[in-house]
Amino acid sequence: MSKQKEIIVNLLGKANVAINGQNPWDIEVHNQEFYSRLFKNPNLMLGESYVDGWWDSRALDQFFFKIMRAGLEHDVRNMSVLLHYIKAQIFNRQKKSRAVDVAQQHYDIGNNLYAPMLGRTMGYTCGYWKNAKNLDEAQDAKFDLVCRKIGLKPGMRVLDLGCGFGGFLKFAAEKYGVSGIGVNISKEQVAFAKESCRGLPVEFQLSDYRSAPKGQFDHIVSIGLAEHVGYKNYRTLLKLASDRLKDGGLFLLHTIGNNISVTATDPWIDKYIFPNGMLPSIKQLGGAMEGLFVMEDWHNFGSDYDKTLMAWYRNFCDNWPTLQKQYGDRFYRLWSYYLLSCAGAFRARHIQLWQLVLSKKGVLGGYQSVR
What we know:
Layout: H1 3-13, E1 27-29, H2 34-40, H3 42-51, E2 55-57, H4 60-69, H5 79-90, H6 101-107, H7 111-118, H8 135-150, E3 157-161, H9 167-176, E4 179-184, H10 187-196, E5 202-206, E6 217-223, H11 234-244, E7 245-258, H12 267-272, H13 282-289, E8 294-300, H14 303-318, H15 320-347, E9 351-359
Parallel strand pairs: 3-4, 3-6, 4-5, 6-7
Antiparallel strand pairs: 1-2, 7-9, 8-9
């Protein structure tokens, strides 16, 4: 056994993961160069070698749950990863001119992929599974939870920063009788949202959040945008929300959250899935909101993202026969790795899902938390 293989075998052993073992989360190595390749940059090469077919696991989500719950990521830092983080310190990778990168590489790759994967609501953020029996119910429950948390009433006007496929504004307009504007950098998502919300008192603007329309709104929501904002720009996002929000209004920020403060994301996710993304920490968001907002409520339901991702994965697999010709087998491995590695990370509580309710001056008499 080579020294590199010995080190990796011992490392995986800490997480009860074996090479060519019998457990569903064990990995089967098809190319012996896997071990030396992994040493070049573990975070990046683990994913690249999987997409290349160099290794497999019958339960990739369980594999990632095991290694993340065991904290193995702390043992694999190296110079390549360090350089990735240094670049993030020097440059503003989420500046306005680069904001469209993630739309072009991820969100605009085809609504014929997203529609069967995401289901009826087209919600591409964590569902709320408290009383839900399936994905559509969980996404409806998430949208309704947001509406109830900010106290929507007929006639109110809402600004949605990020807005995705328009699912929240569609739900809020139909169920709560509000109007609103959604801002998004994805051409495909905006086009879908406009068509989906035809006839409703909502509109959509193809632009970066920093170019959101002027004026003040009764309430503001941001569901899944903060993961693309970057630590150098959290204050910009919070300041914009404060400027656009009426004094008595509420700002609901829905975001994936990190247990520690970082300045860049996983190198594989950055290169292949969400370029220029990163996950905020409590410290980073807290610092960004100082002097702008009172934190009324902080709700963590990160374990629900595991269920959401596994539902997306099942939908993706079920619909793969109709997608295969367009996307190809390599994409199947890449997308499976993305969905299942993220599911394992949430299951291990390595990352979180937060909903923050913020007010500008504090709710008189106190805010009543909604669950």
